[in-house]
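Researcher: Here's a chain I'd like modeled. Treat it as a single chain, no partners, no ligands.
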Amino acid sequence: MEAGKVYFERPGKMRWDYESPEKNVFLVDGKNAWFYVPADHTVTRVPAKRSTDWRTPLSLLVGTMKVSRICNKIGLAEPQAPEYSADVMLYCEPRGASNVREGGDSSRKSDSPEGRDMVYLEVQESSGELVRVLLSDPGGVGIEFRFANWQLHPQLDDSFFRFQVPPGVAIVNGDLGAAQKMASPTPP
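Model: Modeled as a single isolated chain. Structure tokens:
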């Protein structure tokens, strides 16, 4: 499990500083998405619009973009229970989400959440704070992000959301998903 801090800034900027299991930075500056692993001495850069990393759309949620531009459908996710009883679960069917239709698992219906990419948002009903984001794809792969200790309007310099390439670090233009798989430790 990875752990660290995330910072959001309008419009469409964010920075994820991971401390464990290994230090790395994922940054969206509004134009590009950057993934930097100091131990590898490389940074991967991809235009934010072409990023396949699931964290990239989260930067848009705090910007001027409307959720309806990211989601085809949004509503209460009744079958998906919130972790905390005071929270509400919402579902978002992302625009351009893949569906299981041809050659996929025929036991899943394409109009059911199990047959498409889905995003579930757990929100505190009293404050509207985001608690958790659950992502799932038709193949059953899931990712979970947890959020806590929100601080609204922290004073951050704009340079905090610009990636400065350290000396001796190579820039690789490419797919962030592939870069992250290479950087992830392999199980024993």
